[in-house]
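quick one
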Amino acid sequence: MARARRPFFCGNWKLNGSIAESLALATEVRNGVASLRDVDVAVAPSFTALHAVAKRLEDGPVTVAAQDCFWEDKGAFTGEVSAPQLLDAGCKQVILGHSERRQLLGELDAAVNLKARAALRAGLAPIICVGETLAERDAGETLGRIQAQLDGALADMTDAELARIVIAYEPVWAIGTGRNATPAQAEEVHRFIRTRVAARSAAQAGQLRILYGGSVKPDNIRALMAEENVDGGLVGGASLSADSFVRLVKEGSSV
Ligand code: PGA
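structure w/ 2-phosphoglycolic acid:
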């Protein structure tokens, strides 16, 4: 059966890599996936390596994502990087609302919304992360938490804007822990997200790509991708080695 949506895999390199290391990894990933069709692949290096990596990858097929952006385009905001600057550096996407930013840096849904709208204004595709903590899951609050994060992040977006976003469901308890959600757990939340978006626009919901993230590895991606509403992966640890990331993309895009 043909997939309803084109699979998308994004490597989130987090706070890792010199410029030279990032270039080497990006080059290996590009070469490793060059022969693949019917899949989109992105890598998200640190800010310092974005421009160099984007230049290296400019002939495709791998695109470059940033890991955050600010909501204003320019001005007196020491330390921040704007969406137009990321576009200028060669980025096509930006990861927003990652749970590490929510937990360690106090990022709120309202900020994620402002950042997502700034990204869309600049011409970047936001990859918006949502996910519950273990305490929330154990208390039966998973879907309520996802709903609040989703509604907050997508507030005031037009249908045309909704068409350009990607959602990543990343249960906080699965990130970097080696404990991934079961395919059934992932599917339950992915289906919920699609239904929630469908309440606003059925057409946009049908084409929305929903990635799963949290301890995705080459040997567990197939079972996740077999679920109807899992359209790809946001990959942390397993994207830091070209060998494992390329294997993961090949496994995941051949389901
Ligand atoms: P992980 O990270 O694959 O190392 O669990 C995923 C993420 O945080 O995006």
